[in-house]
Structure formats: C-alpha cells, structure tokens
Amino acid sequence: TPYRMWTKLRPGARTFLREAARLFELSVYTMGARAYAEEMARLLDPDGSLFHGRIISKDDSTNSHTKSTDVTLADNRTVLIVDDTEVVWPNQLANLVNVDRYHFYPSSRKTSARGERTATDPGARPQMEAVLDSRVDECGEEGQLARVLEVIKRAHVAYFNNAESTQPDVRVGLASCRAEVLAGTVLLFTRVIPLEQARDARRHQLVRAAEGLGARVVHAECDEVTHVVAGAAGTGKARWGRKFRKHVVSPKWLWDCHFRWKHLDESQYPPKDA
To answer: What φ, ψ does residue 179 adopt, rounded to 5°?
Structure first.
C-alpha cells in the first residue's frame, strides 16, 4: 500500500455497515485521492460484499471542494448520507445524517481543528478530545454509529410506509425523526452567535441545528422559553433563565442532542464562566 498510516475504526463501525447493507446500497465517498479511497474501502470491506466497488473519490467528483449526489446517478428522494462534515454537502443537507467526528489520535484532532472558528464563535462545533488523550473510547453498542443506525432504519421504514404515494421521499421521514428530538422546546440564545451574524441569526449553524431538531428559537426573554443556551454563565439572559427556572445550558448540549438525535439531560451541560 502507498499509504503508511495508522487507522483506528470507530467502535461499532463493522456492525453499522453490516446492518445498513441489509437495507441500503452502500457507497464510499471521500474527498481523498482514489488510491486512499480504495485502501479505506478494503479495510472496511475486505471481501467486497458491502460496497461492491462503489467508491467515489475526489478524482470522480464534479467539484474539488464539495460533494454531491450527482455522481451517484441516484434520485435524491432515495439517498441518505452519513458524513461528519456538513459544509461539503451544500445541496443535499436534507439527505444528511451529520455525525460527530471521531478522533482516536491527537494528531487527527489537531488536523481537524485547523480552520475551526472556535476562538471567535462560542457556538461553533466543539472539538472532541482524542481518545488517546482522554483514555475513554465510545461504546460500540450505545455510541454514535449505533444511534445513527436506529435513525436510518426509522427513515427506511417511513419511506416504504409511503411507497404507494406518488413521490415517496426518504428525506421526509428523516426530517420527521429529527424534528422529534426537541419538539415543544423554545430556545433563547445568549453570547452564542457572533455579532457579525446577529442580523441573520437563522443562518448560524447552531440555530439551524436547533430548528431542525424541532425547537423554536426566540430572540428575547418570554414566558414560553424553556431553555437558555448560553455561551457564558454570567450573561443577563442566563441570569434571567436561572431566576425563572429555565434550563440554562451550554451550546454543547445542543450539539450533543444534534449528533445523538436525543433530548439529553440538561443538568450535565452547565454553561461555562466567561
């Protein structure tokens, strides 16, 4: 192999692929070179029984910086995408199941962190600590891939439950599953959205994630608020939230709900002091 690198599979990866292959036609899609794509496919699928040669690399893509289903010749109504990078799918966000990044090696985390806006954007996607640093790996039976498998199975069932309609669409079932996570909640953000984005806050990635999960976002204190998402514990809105017994949580609570497709325990996510 021309690639001399250590590769650690995420816990539950083989189970996820095996179970998903029973319901879906699987493909590998990477912005890496063709040789790298083929090497990773061999690692994941040694006998070729999962992907059957369906490998897409940057050499096959129609754009050098983004991915698109146009190279799969598939109808978007039948496509689900599992990827840890949302921005590379600008035209297929409705098809995307966005997973949290998995970093086993510290060098992997450092590479991923380059270019992230965490210093200027309190609501930016948090960087997962490398497993070799934390000494704690995720659980294959209850981790990220196990939860994603549940979600895509539900979307598969929803699609075929509507198969007799004129235009069944897997994206409808996926959106329905997502919107159940925080249905009924009303969120107020404080010190999360950078000032330069405040005029069009709905474009911020965390606001879009919240609305996709079924939450309603408001911009001022009101009785309907159930959660204050605070980039710092001492803001006026955070203090108001505690006074009126609202859930006051850090942005990481919302990110974790997004990646786990689950309404998580707010008490585990207190906002940090400024």
So the answer is: -70, -10
